[in-house]
Each structure stands twice: as structure tokens, then as C-alpha cells.
Design goal:
Number of helices: 4
Subcellular location: Cytoplasm
Low-confidence stretches: none
Enzyme class: isomerase
Bound molecules: the ligand N[C@@H](CCC[C@H](N)C(=O)O)C(=O)O
Strand content: 35-45%
Family: Belongs to the diaminopimelate epimerase family.
CATH topology of the largest domain: Diaminopimelate Epimerase, Chain A, domain 1
Order of helices and strands: EEHEEEHEEEEEEHEEEHEEEE
Mean pLDDT: 98
GO molecular function: diaminopimelate epimerase activity
Number of domains: 2
Keywords: Amino-acid biosynthesis, Cytoplasm, Isomerase, Lysine biosynthesis
CATH architecture of the largest domain: Roll
Distance between the termini: 5 Å
Structural class: alpha+beta
Radius of gyration: 18 Å
Number of strands: 18
CATH superfamily of the largest domain: Diaminopimelate Epimerase, Chain A, domain 1
């Protein structure tokens, strides 16, 4: 079987995007892992599928798979690439595109100047919704690891995020603590682990160890979760520039019950065909 794909990236968080409307396919976990493999396949952090919508008001269903083959319900950088893909392929000519995901609907909007803004939906802080195995909701939680006690905030953006405040993001133990916490028993569906350094009330540095993909150059939903956690703790203003290893995002959140907005770039790298 031959598959046509497009390789895309948003701040170096990279994707294999497949039009599964005009090329209907169901891939196995092994085939997804193969496509994501940087040595034997195409290579990406996530695979994105463009499918027919479920709801009457949506244009598409946006399906997301991590490099390890797990299906997830949210990917912010991928959402901007999804918007660019459906427009470039002539699948939609709208300036605002509504997509279904497994968790929620997202609105993807083309801005003047070539950037794309995604309405990422309302963040959830209740432990059950994250999900996080604790009995009471709190702004900060603690976990004991071999490396010592870690304090963290937890936020769902449709996917589970941990946010740890660090003094220096460059020397933060992202790979060790990230890998250990991703699969910790506190997180029954695993979690994405963000390490946030606050520069000032309107700027942060962030590195994210992603569930199912290890450390990536940027995580859009992780950037939203970090800003929500920072605002909740009274450390950040409502609009924040997030500096990630692969580039910058603008995140804004007015507060409780309202959606988080994420603005950034999305780029096509190349097109290809691969035999499975
Ligand atoms: N890179 C993404 C998040 C992708 C999914 C994540 N690894 C998960 O398992 O929840 C983003 O930009 O948000």
C-alpha cells in the first residue's frame, strides 16, 4: 500500500499529515510507529489524520497519534499545521475552520501576517478531568521521586499536563524527571511534563517532555497549560510570550471558564509517498 503524506512543522514540533478523506486508510500501531521512526520511516513527533467530521457544525475530524502509536485528543502545534494543510490542499477555503477532536471542538483561524490562532478550549483543573490520582483539587501538588520531592501544577487542555517551575530551563532535568513522571502512577493516562522558567509576567521559557514522544522542540498544548498554571498561581499576566526551543507562541487566557488562545506559525516541509 502506498501512502501520500505531507511533512509539516510548528516550531520544530514535527508531523506527518495524511488526508484520510481522499485516501481512506486505517493504520495499525506498528505502521504509525514506522512512519514516525526517524531512521526507518519518515520521522515525526505526531501523525495527524484529516477525516470527515462527526458534528454538523465541524468541517473535519482532527485525529492525532503520538510517535509511540498512542491516540490522543489534543495537539496545539498540530492544529495549526492541520489548518495550513486543509487550506493548501484546497479542502477548505474558510478563514475559520471548526474541527472535531476526541476531546472537544477546536476553532482554527488564519490571522493577517500568516500566523494561525487556535481556540484551544477551556482548561480543566479538576483532578478527575486531568486525570490525576489525588482526592482534592489544589493549585500545587507534590510527588516524591528518587531525585527528591517535586512540586507541580496539573492542567488538562484536552490532554494531561504537569507544569514544574524551574529556575533555569536549560539545566532542568527534563529527560530524567520527564520520563519518570510521564508514567507515574499519579497519572492513570500518563502525562506531558512541562518545565517552566518565568522571565517576567509576560514571558516564559518552556521545555516539554511529551507523553508518547519524549522531549520535543515545542508543545502547543503544553504552552497553554504552563500559562494557565502560571496565571492560576498569580505569576503571569493574561497574555504571555512562550519561548520554546523551536520558537515562540503567544498564549492568552482571560480566566476561569474561558478558552485559551494560542497563536503561532505552521510550515510545510515536504510532500512524499511511502510504501507500507
Ligand atoms: N505536541 C503537541 C501535543 C501532542 C500530544 C501529547 N504528546 C499527548 O500525548 O497528549 C502539542 O503541540 O500540543
Amino acid at each position: 500500500m502506498k501512502i501520500n503524506f505531507t511533512k509539516m512543522q510548528g516550531l520544530g514540533n514535527d508531523f506527518v499529515v495524511i488526508d484520510a478523506i481522499n485516501q481512506p486508510i486505517q493504520l495499525t500501531i506498528e505502521q504509525i510507529r514506522f512512519l514516525a521512526d526517524r531512521h526507518f520511516g519518515v520521522g515525526c513527533d505526531q501523525l495527524l489524520f484529516v477525516e470527515k467530521p462527526i458534528s454538523a457544525n465541524a468541517e473535519f475530524k482532527y485525529r492525532i497519534f503520538n510517535a509511540d502509536g498512542s491516540e490522543v485528543a489534543q495537539c496545539g502545534n498540530g492544529a495549526r499545521c492541520f489548518a495550513r494543510f486543509v487550506r493548501d490542499k484546497g479542502l477548505s477555503n474558510k478563514d475559520e475552520i471548526i474541527v472535531d477532536t476526541d476531546a472537544r471542538q477546536l476553532a482554527l483561524r488564519f490571522d493577517a501576517g500568516g500566523l494561525i490562532t487556535v481556540d484551544m478550549g477551556v482548561p480543566a483543573l479538576e483532578p478527575k478531568q486531568i486525570p490525576l490520582n489525588v482526592s482534592e483539587q489544589s493549585k500545587l501538588y507534590k510527588v516524591k521521586l528518587a531525585e527528591g520531592e517535586i512540586e507541580f501544577a496539573a492542567v488538562s487542555m484536552g490532554n494531561p499536563h504537569v507544569v514544574i517551575l524551574v529556575e533555569d530551563v536549560v539545566s532542568a532535568p527534563v529527560l530524567t524527571i520527564g520520563a519518570r513522571l510521564e508514567c507515574h502512577e499519579l497519572f492513570p493516562e500518563r502525562a506531558n511534563i512541562g518545565f517552566m522558567q518565568i522571565i517576567n509576567r509576560r514571558q516564559i521559557e518552556l521545555r516539554v517532555y511529551e507523553r508518547g514522544a519524549a522531549e520535543t522542540l515545542a508543545c502547543g498544548s503544553g504552552a497553554c497549560a504552563a500559562v494557565v498554571a502560571g496565571i492560576e498561581q498569580g505569576l503571569l499576566d493574561q497574555e504571555v510570550q512562550v519561548h520554546l526551543p523551536g520558537g515562540e507562541l503567544t498564549i492568552s487566557w482571560v480566566g476561569n471558564g474561558l478558552p485559551v488562545l494560542m497563536t503561532g506559525a505552521a510550515t510545510t516541509v515536504f510532500e512524499g509517498q511511502i510504501t507500507l
